[in-house]
Amino acid sequence: MKVRITLLLLLLCLSGMLFARGDARVPKLLDQIGVDYELDDDGDYQLYYAWNDGRSQLIWIRGVTEDFHGMEVREVFSYAYDSDGPMPANVARHLLSSNAGYKIGAWELRVTGDTNYGIFVARIGTDMNASSLEHVLDAVSVTADEMEKELLGTDDW
Question: What CA–CA distance (Å, rounded) separates 113 from 110?
Fold first, then answer.
């Protein structure tokens, strides 16, 4: 019995280590478009975009994927808003109404502890080529940065 539990724990630890390594397809695409990245503790790829006006934005590409009716998808996302406690109704309404104007991606509310985050998320197919991924990264980073500037007047993300 102890041997089985030990083996199960070992397998769980190994699967956790594999999970943190991310998806090997992502760095291949990022290398093709010449984007620097880091692999974070969650196995997600973190990218840093900087513009000539001095602003910058962090973007993440999820290292894990999900299945949607046989199509493998992943998230590309960036933070633009955070608040301690509930997101004010006027901010939530503004983010939601902004969604109608985007060709790809949408605003989402995510809650961690007492902090509410406004995150711009694009769900993309894992079969996307490097050029298309570059367009998605541009769209997500610019959209999130512009909203952060509009709502908070900061450049924290």
Answer: 10
Q: What are phi and psi of 31, to 5 degrees?
A: -65, -35
Phi and psi, residue 93, nearest 5° = -65, -40
Q: What is the pLDDT along the chain (157 residues), one digit of tens a residue?
A: 554 544 444 444 444 444 457 899 999 999 999 999 999 999 999 999 999 999 999 999 999 999 999 999 999 999 999 999 999 999 999 999 999 999 999 999 999 999 999 999 999 999 999 999 999 999 999 999 999 999 999 999 8
The structural domains of the chain, ordered by start, are: 22-151 (3.30.1460.10)
- Asked if 35 contacts 47 with a C-beta cutoff of 8 angstroms, the reply is yes
Tokens 């695409």: give the residue. Answer: 29
Note the pTM of the prediction, 2 decimals.
0.85
Which distant-in-sequence residues (6+ apart) come within 8 Å of 154 by Cβ? Answer: 148
139 exposure class (CB count in 10 Å sphere: 0-12, 13-18, 19+): middle
Residue 67 CA to residue 62 CA, distance in Å, equals 14
With contact defined as beta carbons under 8 Å apart, do 3 and 24 qualify?
no
